[in-house]
Amino acid sequence: MTQRLLVLMIASTLAMSACSSKKTATEDSNLPSAANADANMNGDSDSGKAMGLQTIHFGYDAYTLDAANKAVLKANAEILKDKASVKIQIEGHCDQRGGIQYNVALGEKRANTAKKYLQSLGIAANRITVISFGKEKPLDEGTTEEAYAKNRRGNFAITSR
What we know:
The protein is an alpha+beta fold and 161 residues long. It has a domain at 59-161: CATH 3.30.1330.60. Helices cover 41% and strands 15% of the residues.
């Protein structure tokens, strides 16, 4: 029995050590994850602490870019061109109406639309990640159209400088 227990302990130790892998500090530090998606240690456009990057807003149930959004994205692209080492995460957000899955998909479409437009302006795709928070992180908890409009947005979070 003792020998069997010893074999099981050695086998489990080997299995655990085989599953772990060492990573350098820079290897994964710029990738978004559930753990660091909320951190925005480097600032975001919603807070006004993203080196001048601005949030864009969308119409109800829409993910297309209007002229105002394109102007904001052009200004954001100029900042990103000037700060060539900066990487960002575009966060897609929705208002509180609609189902969770629908809003997550819509938020992702909004973030990807902004990313594609920035790419068309010369910003490399590897500098931009996207995430959707759907309706989970409203800026305004109100139930007026004005509150909803604030929540339908693309927020730009700096992930590395």
